[in-house]
Amino acid sequence: MITISLCMIVKDEEEVLHQCLSSIVDICDEIIIVDTGSSDKTKEIAEQFTSNLFDFEWIDDFAAARNFAFSKANMEYILWLDGDDLLLHADQTKLKALKENLSNDVDAVTMLYHLAFDEFGHSTFSSRRHRLVRKDREFKWIGPVHEYLEVGGNIIQSDIVIQHRKSNKTNDNVQSDRNIKIYEKRLEKGEEFSPRDLFYYANELKDHQQFDKAVLYYVEFLLTKKGWVEDEVRSCINLASCYRNLGDEEKVHEALVLSLKYDVPRPEVSCQLGDIYKEKNMYKKAIIWYKLAVEVDIDDTLGFKQEIYSTWYPHLQLCYCYWQIGEQELSIKHNSIAKKFRPDDSRIIYNDQFYNEYFKSENYNE
């Protein structure tokens, strides 16, 4: 059985830290908590779980803080979490099994990361991240903000899910401003951005509704031709979002099509292109794209994935489009498939009722 050090950096996490550590304390052999300047009860909560509590002076550098935390680990493997992450019971069981059976020649393990959820508690936005790494490989975090763990060697994928459950704290906007301010300080110092910096700075600009400026940085990032393919695809998708907010529908279409230059059509892209044709009542063309959304397999990607675009959403749109062109059986079929994902969705329930009433009326008229 391998041994595991949990390494975390935290700041003002009193609302969520207890649930995070409670979900992992029985699995890890050591817990390392690095506090970057909390003013609430975060440190007191951390002390309930570990004596390995360290202070780190915040220097606007997430990678530096995470690398400091990793340097304090003493076990064979390092697991990292954020304060608002947690593992549900089923995933705790999976992680325990992984710990008992993992071969020592494995350098890193990826885990699913569920970042957002719908009203039924189902994941709507997820990615994969390298979560468990060998200590002796001395993998390093890179990047002051939107940092990443640079890993290599024998990497395996697991189906363990880590849930990202944000707190209801009122300083969420302050925290979101923190990242863009770090980038702006770096620009003021005349620092040259890497392709990754360009991409994530553009994301921050988009999130802060600075759409014109975000467009410039997405384009600059793509022109470097040195980005990770997942970031290139996401840049095109985000460009489309910016153009949509700017009211330029022609550019929306161009940005979505541009994503096909970098990889297979992503379900999100296919559905948005389907939406464009559906809004123009070009149902047969819309059907092509919606069908493609459920046919393309991207399960092995490490990039962000919005589950709705490969599950219920394209089927619900296919239900509508097929009805419009008189393919009633196919319409019913796709509504039934959508229902498997969202049985309590009011739109899907309405469709079932519509079908029942429609065919009752048809039978009566006959």
Automatic annotation (TrEMBL):
Sorted keywords for this record are: TPR repeat
Whether Cell division counts among this entry's keywords is no
Question: Cross-referenced Pfam families, in alphabetical order?
Answer: Glycos_transf_2, TPR_8
Acyltransferase as a keyword of this entry, yes or no, is no
TPR repeat boundaries on the chain: 267-300
PROSITE patterns from the xrefs?
TPR
Gene3D superfamilies assigned: Spore Coat Polysaccharide Biosynthesis Protein SpsA, Chain A, Tetratricopeptide repeat domain
PANTHER family xrefs = GLYCOSYLTRANSFERASE, POLY-BETA-1,6-N-ACETYL-D-GLUCOSAMINE SYNTHASE
Q: What is this protein called?
A: Glycosyltransferase involved in cell wall biosynthesis
